[in-house]
Amino acid sequence: MGFCCNGFGWGSWMDWGGGWVGLILNLVFFAGVLVVLGFGAAWLVRQLRGRPLAVGGETDPLEIVRQRLAAGEITIEEFEDIRDRLRA
User: How far apart are CA 56 and CA 36, in angstroms?
Assistant: First the structure.
């Protein structure tokens, strides 16, 4: 035939996969890769959720402080102190 490996080019799945066991292991491996990609995509979505995409300009610092106050990250006293510093 002129090709190596019994006419199958660089080898068949029987040569490197071990028959049915290799087929099952390859399917399990592929499923594992899909699961890892799915978890990675879910993690990425969770990281990016709630963050506005900056389109063409800076975000107003006072608006950021208001959002932090609304989210409970800072107290009213801290908000007022930061607001006064930004206005000065």
Answer: 34
